[in-house]
Every structure is written in structure tokens, then in C-alpha cells.
Amino acid sequence: MSDTVSRTPRRSARNLSSALSGRRSQNPMREFDTLPPELRRWLAQAALPWSARSVRKIWRKGLQEGGVPAALARLSAAEVATLSKEKLAR
User: Fold this and answer.
1) Whole-number Cα distances in Å, 39 to 15, 25, 44
2) DSSP helix/strand/coil, 8
3) Which residues contact 25 (CB under 8 A, 6 or more apart)?
4) What's the gap between Cα 62 and its chain centre?
5) What is the pTM of this model?
6) Which residues contact 47 (CB under 8 A, 6 or more apart)?
7) Per residue in 6-59, pLDDT tens?
8) Which whole-number Å values give the CA distances from 5 to 8, 10, 11, 12, in the listed order?
């Protein structure tokens, strides 16, 4: 027999889970259904697939700035910024 022990790489247990793993919605359709009608209309014509959680965050900030028109403008600006980032990444 050989004096050396064959060692196979072992995965660390800390890499098997994430603090973010519990953040996924249990029912994404239910989250979408709870969005305001104006926001759902905006999502229907959006160029990107948005999660209900991320779009709601942008929506709330826009509402604080100046109501529904400001929220819709903030959403459109976020989408344009994301699309331009994707173009640069290609």
C-alpha cells in the first residue's frame, strides 16, 4: 500500500446554502396579483421580466417622490438603465 493518502477535494458546508435562498417567493403569481393596477399595466408592456419584489421597491420610491407619474417615470428610467448595461456587457 502507498504511504500517501488519496485526498479528494471536499466541499465546504458553507457553500451549500445562502442567506438569500429563503428570499424567493413561495407564490410569484400571488405577489404579482397584489401589485397596483397601474404597475401591472406597466409590467405588461415592459421590455424586461421584472420580479414583483424589485418592481414594487422602485414603485414605492417613485410614489414618495411625486405619485403615480413619478413612479412610472422611475420604472422606465430603471428599465432603460438596465437595458443599456446589458448592451455594454455584450
Assistant:
1) 37, 19, 9
2) coil
3) 31, 51, 52, 53
4) 17
5) 0.67
6) 79, 83
7) 565 555 555 555 454 556 667 888 989 999 999 999 999 999 999 999 999 999
8) 10, 14, 18, 20
